[in-house]
Write a structure and sequence with these properties.
The protein is mainly alpha-helical and 213 residues long. The chain folds into two domains: 143 residues; 37 residues, no CATH class. The longest helix is centred in the first third of the chain and has 26 residues. The two termini are 31 Å apart. The C terminus is likely disordered.
Length: 213
């Protein structure tokens, strides 16, 4: 997407925030640390966010009688405890790239993700710790203010899963999808310069001619 971006070593594109790819294709299909990290964050986030979703959604269905077992105040604190690692740990890469987009004055999709997730999470923090600052009309049962921890956690998780799927489609597990593996295998021994940012691959035709000869 932005082949003009070049740097020595791994990193992210300062324009769109996506991971930069190596300039030279190789036959190495070793383990990919970023893929492993993204997978770990996604699965841990999924396990923690499901109870948050159940607590919040079930509380709006009177027939389930959830408030007979878990009071609204206790539910809020449980949601806070479970959603915090989802947002601040599982979703941390989005906040890092969002901050980078501000520093580079190039807002992108990570800016929007961080803005939406952060707004829901930090609003809920104020509603949990200082509910007295909200007007009386904002308070419900037990004087609690409605929180959106489940929205923040699900947003971070949803975008994390989307990023993971996109990564699998472009790089594949351990960098070995059909396209990725074929690229590396075909050009092994004939290094091809790849203009890479955000998984954009552009081959040098001179090397293709050399390979054909």
């Amino acid at each position: 997407m932005h082949p003009q971006i070049r740097q020595v070593g791994p990193g992210n594109c300062p324009i769109c925030g996506m991971t930069l790819e190596p300039v030279t294709a190789t036959a190495d299909v070793g383990s990919n640390s970023e893929l492993l990290d993204m997978s770990r964050r996604f699965w841990v986030g999924l396990v923690l966010s499901l109870p948050v979703l159940v607590l919040e959604m079930a509380g709006h269905i009177p027939a389930l009688g959830l408030h007979d077992f878990v009071s609204p105040r206790v539910s809020t604190w449980i949601q806070f405890a479970l959603s915090t690692p989802v947002v601040l740990w599982a979703g941390w890469p989005f906040f890092e790239r969002a901050w980078a987009s501000v520093v580079h004055r190039s807002l992108n999709m990570f800016s929007l993700i961080a803005l939406g997730t952060g707004a829901a999470y930090f609003y809920s923090l104020f509603a949990t710790f200082v509910p007295g600052i909200f007007p009386a009309g904002f308070r419900g049962m037990g004087g609690t203010v409605s929180v959106y921890f489940e929205a923040a956690a699900e947003a971070a998780l949803q975008h994390g899963s989307t990023a993971l799927i996109a990564w699998l489609q472009t790089a594949g597990p351990r960098g070995s999808t059909m396209a990725g593996f074929a690229t590396r295998a075909s050009f092994a021994g004939h290094p091809s310069h790849i203009a890479t940012a955000s998984h954009a691959l552009t081959f040098n035709p001179d090397h293709l001619m050399g390979a054909a000869q």
